[in-house]
Amino acid sequence: MSLPKAELHLHIEGTLEPELAFALAARNGVTLPFADTEELRHAYSFSDLQSFLDLYYALMAVLRTEQDFADLADAYLARAAGQGVRHAEIFFDPQAHTARGVEIGTVVEGLSRALERSEERYGISTQLIMCFLRDEPAASALETFEAAGPHLHRISGVGLDSAEVGNPPAKFREVYELAAAAGLRRVAHAGEEGPAEYIREALDVLGVERIDHGLRCLEDQELVARLVREQVPLTLCPLSNVRLRCIDTLADHPLRRMLDAGLLVTVNSDDPAYFGGYVEDNFTALRDALGLDRETLRTLAANSFKAAFLDEPRRRALLAEVAAYEFTD
Ligand SMILES: Nc1ncnc2[nH]cnc12
Ligand SMILES: [Zn+2]
Fold first, then answer.
1. Which domains does the chain show, CATH number per domain?
2. Does residue 253 have a known ligand-binding role?
3. Do the beta carbons of residue 242 and residue 250 sit within 8 Å?
4. Model-level ipTM above the cut of 0.85
5. Which of 9, 19, 131, 184 has the smallest set of CB atoms within 10 Å of its CB?
């Protein structure tokens, strides 16, 4: 049995494994520009965020029907269950699908079909977070929010992702105001490739409750002090950071320094099909690279539940499971 944990930074489209991509391509009559899964896997070598995003968006061509989205989410949940995940807050990118002629209702209803059965099947509670693509115009985010209107009862929050540099959080002030008025939770990617200033802007202008990545906060000690004081959760993704060359090697990852500074950090997988591991693989790789002891791993698991948008009884129950967990390896 694995250490119980929440996954708070997971793009469902980033869980599309090569085998499922080819199966969906065959089902939908889509031709992929790769001969087979092995050739596709060879393309998983990235120089930066954009080089990954190019492949990530291209492969989405195979996702067309509600059943495709349900199959994608179910495959993720089955794997997550094997990695100790007890709660998952799942990102999706509606504009990447509507731009291809797939309606937002197809995406949300398809994902929800799998999510609705997740507690019963896998013991994983779930929420959906709708992300806006920050390299698209603000008007497109507003249109997306409007199109999501009939499905908002299935969506817990909004997020901001895609190419960060040159697309500051403030560009999305209006749509975040609408989301807040609709009672949605707010998060945003900031400080992955972009500067520390974007983290401050996400907090001050968008009113976010969590920062996705946030790695570059370390360049601004005043900001670090604020994140510690306000206990703003940071959803770190260590294997992603190495694959997208935000850091050179896992041994260089500042996670331990961040914990020691008092930051509320969590460990997540981002796009596990592309970055070489799901969430527990991230825990294990960090443990091995940084020499983390069991109590530090327990702290990281507890942080994931502290940072989650859970109701208090379930948060308490899951924190109790973490406290009682007995390591066997
Ligand atoms: N790591 C990441 N950063 C920004 N946008 C993303 N979309 C999917 N993964 C992402
Ligand atoms: Zn991400």
1. 20-308 (3.20.20.140)
2. no
3. yes
4. yes
5. 19
